[in-house]
């Protein structure tokens, strides 16, 4: 028996060593490929656009003073991702990032120009042609039409924010369709496509910082609809945006419901890199984890895959419809390509990784303002660990934590649409003011 156990342990140890060796060489190759693609994109950008797009291959201390001053809101992970060949100065063609001063319109800019590597189909660039500078918002009004004078006062307002690589369809396909009939007359619902996702604008010179996302929600929902009070419901990346928005409007927010929020304790000391390592560490298995690693660590490799998938999304959608014999694809499949590399890359780093360092301060503001905060998290979530929500509960006991058994990052909502909606209704009813 002991011999069998020893053999088993030895086999597992050899397997672990082999996997570690393969992982090392795979990511070493990706380091090299990213450095090469940096040079390739430099020449392609100059050829198609007349100017090379800046990248983060340059060390943070090497950018200009104006750039450094303008990029204080950017995540450490943009420059802190280690690459063996970049550290060696391999090829040495990194483009220094020029800081563009913030203009009226979009957060961080508003250049209405499509990059050659982004999709130019009608649905993807319609916001440019219309000169639209507001987010796409799906509004579910009350059954009874109200006058302009009473808008925002006679009903409860609820703003829904989706997660990474998603859209407002997450909420319109779930909560909007499952609200209990008597409840529909009490709430006006706003499902938002965050900046850079879905049908919302995707400006090529926005840095997609946390503040940019908050300002666009203010401009697209709170101000035009004159919301003097509202509730927030958010999933994944949207939770960070929701907490930031709630902290800014703590006197007007009635409740905040966070589904699978990203959070790390001791957030101000290197938490951005901790978030990157935890959420998208360099792993080969499972395949989803490997994909997250590649798209989060390698700026130019990620742009290449976005060029293949997002720029050619119509071709892939037609192919999938043909293979599945379906007239319409699931919204989750469509949403995966409804972004640009620039918008997804910067939202990943500046919101998901960079935003966690502000979470403690924002949650403390909500605590002092006695805003009801509820968290819903699946115990089988492989993307955002359950520990994130548990750590919030430990540091902020006032937060209500609801752990859903046998639910992961998506099925915590999609696998229990009616139950999830009923849970929201109970939360809203319990926090009436």
TrEMBL record:
Residues 158-413 form the AB hydrolase-1 domain. One of its GO terms (molecular function) is hydrolase activity. The chain crosses the membrane at residues 21-44. InterPro entries: AB_hydrolase_1 (IPR000073), AB_hydrolase_fold (IPR029058). It comes from the Eukaryota. Keywords: Membrane, Transmembrane, Transmembrane helix. Pfam families: Abhydrolase_1. The keyword Transmembrane applies. This is Alpha/beta-Hydrolases superfamily protein, putative isoform 1. It comes from Theobroma cacao (Cacao).
């Amino acid at each position: 028996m002991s011999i069998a156990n020893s053999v088993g342990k030895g086999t597992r140890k050899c397997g672990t060593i082999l996997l570690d060796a393969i992982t090392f060489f795979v990511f070493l190759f990706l380091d090299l490929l990213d450095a090469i693609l940096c040079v390739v994109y430099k020449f392609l950008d100059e050829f198609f656009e007349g100017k090379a797009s800046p990248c983060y291959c340059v060390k943070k201390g090497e950018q200009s003073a104006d750039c450094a001053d303008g990029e204080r809101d950017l995540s450490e992970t943009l420059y802190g991702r280690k690459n063996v060949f970049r550290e060696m100065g391999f090829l040495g063609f990194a483009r220094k990032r020029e800081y563009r001063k913030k203009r009226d319109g979009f957060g961080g800019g508003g250049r209405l120009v499509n990059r050659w590597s982004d999709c130019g189909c009608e649905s993807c660039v319609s916001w440019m042609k219309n000169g639209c500078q507001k987010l796409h918002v799906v509004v579910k009004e009350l059954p009874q039409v109200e006058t302009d004078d009473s808008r925002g006062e006679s009903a409860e307002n609820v703003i829904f924010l989706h997660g990474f690589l998603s859209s407002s369809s997450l909420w319109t396909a779930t909560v909007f369709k499952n609200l209990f009939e008597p409840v529909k007359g009490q709430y006006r619902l706003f499902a938002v496509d965050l900046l850079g996702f879905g049908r919302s604008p995707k400006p090529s010179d926005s840095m997609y910082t946390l503040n940019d996302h908050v300002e666009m929600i203010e401009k697209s929902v709170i101000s035009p609809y004159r919301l003097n009070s509202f509730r927030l419901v958010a999933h994944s990346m949207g939770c960070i945006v929701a907490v930031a928005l709630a902290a800014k409007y703590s006197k007007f927010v009635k409740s905040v419901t966070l589904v699978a929020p990203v959070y790390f304790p001791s957030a101000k000391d290197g938490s951005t890199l901790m978030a990157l390592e935890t959420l998208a560490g360099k792993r080969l298995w499972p395949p989803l984890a490997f994909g997250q690693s590649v798209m989060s660590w390698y700026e130019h490799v990620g742009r290449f895959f976005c060029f293949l998938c997002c720029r050619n999304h119509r071709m892939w959608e037609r192919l999938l419809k043909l293979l599945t014999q379906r007239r319409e694809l699931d919204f989750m499949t469509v949403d995966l390509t409804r972004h640009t590399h620039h918008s997804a890359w910067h939202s990943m780093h500046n919101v998901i990784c960079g935003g966690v360092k502000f979470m403690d301060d924002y949650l403390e503001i909500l605590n002092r303002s006695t805003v009801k905060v509820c968290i819903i998290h699946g115990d089988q979530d492989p993307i955002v660990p359950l520990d994130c929500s548990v750590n919030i509960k430990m540091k902020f006991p006032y937060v209500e934590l609801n752990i859903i058994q046998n639910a992961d990052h998506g099925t915590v909502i999609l696998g229990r649409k009616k139950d999830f909606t009923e849970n929201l209704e109970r939360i809203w009813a319990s926090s009436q003011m």
